Amino acid sequence: MLQREKDWVSKIQMMQLQSTDPYLDDFYYQNYFEKLEKLSATEELQGDGPKKERTKLITPQVAKLEHAYKPVQFEGSLGKLTVSSVNNPRKMIDAVVTSRTEDDETKEKQVRDKRRKTLVIIEKTYSLLLDVEDYERRYLLSLEEERPALTEERKHKICSMYDNLRGKLPGQERPSDDHFVQIMCIRKGKRMVARILPFLSTEQAADILMTTARNLPFLIKKDAQDEVLPCLLSPFSLLLYHLPSVTVTSLLQQLMNLPQSAAAPAPSNPHLTAVLQNKFGLSLLLVILSRGEDLQNSDPTTEATENHQWTEVMFMATRELLRIPQAALAKPISIPTNLVSLFSRYVDRQKLNLLETKLQLVQGIR
């Protein structure tokens, strides 16, 4: 290398050592040489010989200048042009500081705490579910005298799972739906409910189904990205075969957002419209209609009041299915085989053909 090139490299390296405060920026190096200087001074005082000369790197110092950056401006330009450099990089993001009140922070903290509590409840309930699912293996491996205690423990854990889902407090007549809805807003919670349902009693599972039907539009909205709700259709369908006619009628009223005593329908029913526009909601509605109609035909002892109530609800469901546009109707997961004969009792032939065509087009069969 030429001497000029060596000087150029040395200058670049020395520029990296420039500092306004070498003692702070290069603390260990400065302290190391202070100790060497003290050691040399001590040796000289003791007469051990001449003071040793130690090579020390002299760190160049620069004056600390305070300056404000002013971007270059050109006359006649539309805006202020900035030139980026190492010391003045181009600003990429404008950080806007928004003022937040104490009420906003308190609300956000409450939402976070509520979600954390829900996640903790889901994990605790899952632990109970895994123990209950493992019951059969433990029962077969246990001794005869241990089995009654295992059975009692299983019953207790199933009740605990139901209480965790519904959030029923001691002394409370009816638990609030909000606790269950919070669990159902989480993907893991929905899958957990589908696995728990077969272990619950008929009354407990029916309560879970009723609560789901009451809050289905909100749950559908929260499930738009996950699309996990269809996993509940199979356990709900099996449950319907264990419910009496009056319960199925009440369930259909809850799903359609109707009062317990069917009155004159409203001009529009946003609740039912949201159900029909979702594949899980429409599939659940069709399964309930099919099961309810089977119960009405197979049970001759059904009271006249129940028959009249079921007929009114069926008329409303049929009218809503005819009213909703074909494009807005969701594609159901499955269609019951007795659906056409079911509707033939409540509409004339022209409307039946229209309804059958609409459902066939949705399903893409026949």
From TrEMBL:
From what superkingdom does this record's organism come?
A: Eukaryota
Which molecular function GO terms apply here? RNA binding
* InterPro entries in the record: Pat1-like, PAT1_dom
Keyword list (alphabetical) reads: Cytoplasm, Nucleus, Phosphoprotein, RNA-binding
Location in the cell reads: Cytoplasm, P-body; Nucleus speckle; Nucleus, PML body
Could you list the residue ranges that cross the membrane?
none
Record-level GO BP terms: deadenylation-dependent decapping of nuclear-transcribed mRNA; P-body assembly
Asked whether the UniProt record includes Oxidoreductase among its keywords, one would answer: no
Q: Does the keyword Amino-acid biosynthesis apply?
A: no
GO CC terms, sorted? nuclear speck; P-body; PML body
Q: Which Pfam families match?
A: PAT1 (PF09770)
Q: Which residues form the mRNA decay factor PAT1 domain?
A: 70-313
Q: Which protein family is named in the record? A: Belongs to the PAT1 family.
PANTHER family hit by this protein: PROTEIN PAT1 HOMOLOG 1, TOPOISOMERASE II-ASSOCIATED PROTEIN PAT1
What name does this protein carry? Protein PAT1 homolog 1
Q: Which organism is it from?
A: Molossus molossus (Pallas' mastiff bat)
